[in-house]
Amino acid sequence: MSADAVNADAANASTPAPPVKEKFDAAGRRVLLVCVAGGFTTLIDQSVLNTSIPALRESLHAQPAHLQWIVAGYSLAFGLALIPGGRLGDVRGRKWFFVGGLALFTAVSVLSATATEPWLLVAARLLQGAGAGLVNSQMIGTLQDVFRGQLRARALGMYAVTGGLAFALGPPIGGAVLAAAGPEYGWRLTFLLNVPFGLATLALAVRHLPRPRPSARHADLDLVGLLLVAALTLALMLPFVQPPGWAGWLGFAAVAVLLLGALAGWQRRYARAGGHPLIHPALTRSAPYALGTAVAMAQFGSSLAAGLVLTMFLQDGLGLSPMGAALVALPSAVAMGFASAFAWRVVQRFGRRTVTAGMIGSAVVMLAGGLVARWTPVGPLPWLLALLQLLGGASVGLMAASNQAFVLRHAPAEAAGVGGAILQMAQRIAAAVSVSALSGVYLRATGGGGGHRAAYAWASGVCAALAALAVVASMLAGRVSAREAAEAGATEVQAASGGAASGGAAAGEGAVGGPARESTPTR
User: Fold this and answer.
1) 415 and 225 in contact (C-beta within 8 Å)?
2) pTM attached to this predicted model
3) Pick from 441, 448, 446: which is nearest to 464 by CA?
């Protein structure tokens, strides 16, 4: 074969095939249904409960400290269960950890609904959070195990959008239940809503989730690493569950730094001793994984904080009812669902730039919301804010699932559960920090005499700045990924050239044509 023919063959082999929409097979659709149902059941719980807090407080005569633990204790236990659950699933198989976590969540929902004392509800919420964390840590790993390529990205996208829809649909559902049943029984029914969803998902999971396939190569659990991660999670999240004052903040920060250093040292020591550390080395060395996780943290934290201050502004500043405030925010969920349905097509055409563009859109919407609230007359203001929620939801729908797929692409198969759990835990920590800080910004601004409009404008500006940081991180992640891809491509070309030079005409044709086509990326 001539040199020109070899070069032409290599060029054709390196050209990606036109994008073709892959379809889920019947087994894949069933697994996806189980994961989406499990995610919706465990994630809608928190957003439905938020509308029931006033009724719950009156019914149980709960103190402010009780309410903090009822609301935030769920997130704390959820975060604590993620990484241990992900590692257990990686090592022992995911199916029965999923089933056990969902069974615990569903059973304790009944205990929550029948609680007669605040401390009993606090304990039930902690158990619920642990069950939900165990379930969610298995879902991302399961989706990565079952699906590949485009189908994996679409499956992860559906899971990510399910979480956004759960958070958006929770307030209207909670408001409707309270309106129908009254405050005394309504808050209890919001917990019982979990039970039929949980039982149906359990039946589907037992039947359709893949059989456990424990990892024989990486069967060690790194118990010291698990304990250090649990302690670090507590140190990072507990201050936002129970604010400790300035001295306490400094103490928790010092403890977190010490635990982080101890975890890093232990992981190195454990690896040198021949073990498989909890945090896979591929995750700690991957700049795209770290930058993509930073994007997810900033997006998740800014979005939840923006939703919280919007609800506070609509009810306290504009005097809307809880249902009215929920309807203003509802377009965000609708747009997110529609945008996510075709996000994979946009990603195929524009790649990582989709994530950056979505974050830019989100930041602009947050900034515009503050300006609109500051200067627009009261009459049309809810309508304009609802329109901005529509645009913001579309932006998040385009980028959230895409970014998650890009991040998890850098997690090796044996650490799929831990890689997804770290991503989720980082988002939970970002949400705790952002919600605590932004609600403080809003309340201090209203207390300073500027009024609710000025307070919402300030808080929205801070959310927009946080989203802008995600834009910067996304751009850096894109550059690093492009550089790594170029280096990998150069290595493949060198290998192919060496194979062509070392073989004869017929052998050279096979060396260039075969491997080059096998390494062609599928998008």
Assistant:
1) no
2) 0.74
3) 441
Q: Are 412 and 282 in contact (CB under 8 A)?
A: yes
| Half-sphere exposure for 32 (CA within 13 Å, toward CB) | 20
DSSP at 353: H
User: pLDDT by residue for the chain (523 residues), tens digit each?
Assistant: 544 554 544 444 444 444 555 678 888 889 999 998 998 888 888 778 877 877 888 888 888 778 778 877 887 888 888 888 888 888 888 899 999 999 999 999 999 999 889 899 999 999 999 999 899 888 878 888 888 777 877 787 777 778 777 877 787 888 788 878 887 888 899 899 889 989 999 999 999 898 876 554 455 677 888 888 888 888 887 787 666 777 778 888 899 899 989 988 888 888 888 777 777 777 878 888 889 889 998 998 898 888 888 888 887 888 887 778 878 888 888 888 788 777 778 888 888 888 999 999 999 999 999 999 988 888 899 999 999 999 998 998 888 878 887 887 777 766 677 777 788 888 878 877 787 778 777 877 776 666 888 889 999 999 999 999 999 999 998 888 888 777 766 666 666 665 554 444 444 433 333 333 333 333 3
Contact yes or no for 143/156 (Cβ under 8 A): yes
CB 259 within 8 A of CB 231: yes
Could you give the CA distance from residue 325 to residue 312 in angstroms, rounded to a whole number? 9
**Residues 6+ away with beta carbon under 8 Å from 86:** 137, 138, 140, 141, 417, 418, 419, 420, 421, 422
- d(Cα 481, Cα 329) in Å, to the nearest integer? 35
**Dist. CA 206–CA 48, nearest whole Å:** 27
CB 339 within 8 A of CB 393: yes
DSSP string covering 30-74, please? HHHHHHHHHHHHHHHHHHHHHTTHHHHHHHHT--HHHHHHHHHHH
Longest dimension (CA), the chain: 86
Nearest residue to 462 via CA among 426, 432, 438: 438
Nearest to 28 by CA among 144, 199, 163: 144
Three-state DSSP state, 351: coil
Give CA–CA dist 64/312, Å, rounded.
Answer: 18
| Tokens standing for residue 313 | 């502004």
* DSSP track, 195-226: HHHHHHHHHHHHHHSPPP---STT----HHHH
Phi, psi (rounded to 5 degrees) for 228? -65, -40
User: Tokens 């994984």 map to which residue?
Assistant: 289
Cα radius of gyration (the chain)? 25
Distance of CA 363 to CAs 219, 296, 309, 353, 415, Å?
A: 44, 14, 15, 15, 33
At residue 374, the 3 state secondary structure works out as helix
Would you give the end-to-end CA distance of the chain in angstroms? 31
